[in-house]
Amino acid sequence: MKYISTRGKSPAVTFEEVVLTGLAPDGGLYIPDSLPMVTPAQLQEWKKLSYSDLAFEIIRQFVDGAIPDANLRKMINDSYAGFSHPDVAPLVHLQKNDWVLELYCGPTLAFKDFALQLLGRLLDFFLEKRQQHVAILGATSGDTGSAALEGCKHCRFVDLFILHPHNRVSEVQRRQMTTVEGDNVNNLAIEGNFDDCQQIVKQAFADQSFLPAGYQLVAVNSINWARIMAQIVYYFYAALKFLDKAEAVSFSVPTGNFGDIYAGYLAKKMGLPIRQLIIATNRNDILHRFISSNSYSLSTLQPSLSPSMDIMVSSNFERFLYDLFKGDTQRVASFVTGLGKNAQQVSDEEWAFARAHFASRAVDDVATIATIQEVYKRTGFLLDPHTATGVKAAEVCNTDSSIPMITLGTAHPAKFGAAIEQAGLEVPALPAHMSDLFSRKERYSVLANDLATVKAYVVETLKKRR
Fold first, then answer.
1. Among 58, 154, 281, 336, fewest CB within 10 Å belongs to which?
2. Known active-site residue 268
3. What is the DSSP string of 231-291?
4. CATH number for the domain including 194?
5. Domain that holds residue 134
């Protein structure tokens, strides 16, 4: 299997190369040149598998021989061995045909652990083979940073630089990043919002000439294909629990950067019977505005109670555009690069294609709090604010109540105490392995929202390390 750029001006690369790059040289995102298809017979066989065994069966098709099967299986087993629930991704019944898929049983209590625990091991394998040093440069709106640090802090050939928006993540999210120990760990608080952090990362990847000799940048954001690949698995894992009783399932997905729901879209393309994919957003609703009114345009980014979705430029939407425009890479590039100038629209036929695959709902803070309260009162189950947007969106957008509706539970509620308190509920305690989080020493640097400043910090740090 080869991987191609959504913008069509970079050569196709192998799985190893796509893991070690992130953005394509032409600024596009990598996608597989073909998707493996899954038959109904395979789905029946896969129902018997544990999470790790299912992950191996799916992921090995994308790795396509770049890693020996025995090594890959060990990486996957090790990635999920430390999750706190034996099912790795357990399903919780809310009411009637509504479910939550708990994706926060990993070490940092967020769905990002599913991909980043594996990515750290992939990097170790390929960099050890190459005897090559790299610098991870990533932007986080809250959860990616801690998951990346936890997954990659032990990598011998990696230095980590994680950018987060200063004072725009929850205190638990910040401390999860800034208390990670390691000589190769660098937390940078940028005086701006997440989109500013993401833009700095993209610009740095576009021109890496500033790096010391022998280094290259590696992405840990969902622009890295390995992130999407790992997330495809839990759609299959959840759906397979129901396929004896239902002809299909539906998913509601809290998403800001479009990566998590894009994984669901690929699972559907591969043959998983998915009826609905619902995009749940907060007040930063560029995705909802496109699905609901065919208008993809920037607006002012606003802080919300679901900060991990405080994103206006949804990077992974570019991957879907490749399909929407039927592989017309020039149109993809034009659409994406024109975003800052004016509102982008597509033809009626293309908009109908998008709406055939996705429904959407924007859920403001008032509705988020009300949903947390209502679900807790009715079921005793405590939602974090991101998952609450998904539950509300599912309630509004569901077109067939006979089909199981699964909302992705993206983070543990203990990470978002302010929202839980605003709902008038008690903030749950952090798990034992994080019980001393607030007494740990923090380490981070506050930097200006400036590409040159970040580049200089990276260069100075890497020179000291060598």
1. 154
2. no
3. HHHHHHHHHTTTTTT-S-EEEEEE-SSSHHHHHHHHHHHHT--EEEEEEEE-S--HHHHHH
4. 3.40.50.1100
5. 3-78+111-224+440-465
